[in-house]
């Protein structure tokens, strides 16, 4: 059974000293995930190379270091508002550098990582995801991409948001939960909801909400958003202010509305919304720690990001730093024939 998710470590790359901090954090995360042999040191290399690139070539950049979404391992996300890369393929050449350093650059990151995704645009910045796990643990070919980031409020070590994902063949059931407030009590409520979700994630969505409502009755309560994705369609059910939508290359395709209330306290009878599947869309759930107005300034660069990058980009650009923030992105909803 899955357990509540570890928090994402956010490292602002505003000084070159952040490079060492990033390397240390990635190595520790790898060890915590049970990675063996040279893998913890390789995780440190991924983080140091990506932090070094941001420090030297970009501005307003950050690294987000966390366990992998679906298997034991480490993910390093690098997001910046720098100038972007005019020639991405040249920058991905192993050993290429524009700063006369001994670093091996993005080419080494691509070579070491077992999942590597990058998007860049001149004037819009760069987003990179480098993932590393034990050999043989890579998800099966064709597995839809998953991106998730879970960041506590500034000054907090615990996160009052969390997420869950259950996969059963072609059916994926996704959860984002936002415990009321932040800090220890909010984190306890979020963890209770995630544990209840994983007891039987195949239940109808209203049944899942009733299960979580019972589990949270002695907590401070939470907002909960659920999506179930299948080739037949997308089902949505939520109580509180967790946002849910489908995002395509052309912008927002669908928005889902949640019911007012608090799971664990005054939950209404849940209602399910169903819409047709969107073959090329990314499904997105996020807590209100991400400003919902991000869709008002949506650019083609952001709307075209794959799921592993979208979560990091939204948290980086639109997070409310005084609140916990969680984004879960899944997509595409259905593979093309």
From TrEMBL:
Ranges in a coiled coil: none
Domain PPM-type phosphatase: 143-332
PANTHER family assigned: PHOSPHOSERINE PHOSPHATASE RSBX
Name of the protein described by the UniProt record: Anti-sigma regulatory factor
Pfam families: HATPase_c_2
Gene source species: Streptomyces lavendofoliae
Lineage, broadest ranks: Bacteria, Bacillati, Actinomycetota, Actinomycetes, Kitasatosporales
SUPFAM superfamilies xref list: ATPase domain of HSP90 chaperone/DNA topoisomerase II/histidine kinase (SSF55874), PP2C-like (SSF81606)
Entries under Gene3D superfamilies matching the protein: Histidine kinase-like ATPase, C-terminal domain, PPM-type phosphatase domain
InterPro entries: HATPase_C_sf, HATPase_dom, PPM-type-like_dom_sf, PPM-type_phosphatase-like_dom, Ptase_RsbX
């Amino acid at each position: 059974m899955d357990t509540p998710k570890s928090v994402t470590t956010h490292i602002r790359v505003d000084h070159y000293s952040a490079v060492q901090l990033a390397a240390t954090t990635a190595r520790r995360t790898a060890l915590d995930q049970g990675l063996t042999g040279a893998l913890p040191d390789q995780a440190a290399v991924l983080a140091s190379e990506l932090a070094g690139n941001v420090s030297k070539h970009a501005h307003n950049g950050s690294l987000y270091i966390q366990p992998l979404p679906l298997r034991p391992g480490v993910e390093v996300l690098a997001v910046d508002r720098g100038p972007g890369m005019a020639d991405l393929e040249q920058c991905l050449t192993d050993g290429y550098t524009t700063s006369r350093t001994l670093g091996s650059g993005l080419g080494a990151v691509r070579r070491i990582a077992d999942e590597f995704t990058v998007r860049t645009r001149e004037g819009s910045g760069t987003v990179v995801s480098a993932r590393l796990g034990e050999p043989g643990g890579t998800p099966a070919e064709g597995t839809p991409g998953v991106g998730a980031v879970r960041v506590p409020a500034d000054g907090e070590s615990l996160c009052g948001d969390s997420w869950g994902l259950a996969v059963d063949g072609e059916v994926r059931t996704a959860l984002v939960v936002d415990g009321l407030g932040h800090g220890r009590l909010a984190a306890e409520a979020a963890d209770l909801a995630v544990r209840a979700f994983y007891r039987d994630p195949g239940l109808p969505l209203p049944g899942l909400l009733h299960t979580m409502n019972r589990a949270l009755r002695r907590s401070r309560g939470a907002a909960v958003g659920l999506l179930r994705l299948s080739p037949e369609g997308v089902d949505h059910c939520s109580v509180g202010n967790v946002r849910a939508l489908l995002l395509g290359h052309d912008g927002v395709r669908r928005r889902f509305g949640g019911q007012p209330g608090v799971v664990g306290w005054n939950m209404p009878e849940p209602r399910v919304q169903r819409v047709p599947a969107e073959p090329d869309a990314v499904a997105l759930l996020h807590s209100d720690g991400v400003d919902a107005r991000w869709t008002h300034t949506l650019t083609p660069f952001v709307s075209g990001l794959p799921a592993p990058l979208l979560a990091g980009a939204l948290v980086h650009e639109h997070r409310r730093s005084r609140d916990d923030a969680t984004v879960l992105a899944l997509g595409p909803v259905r593979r093309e024939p």
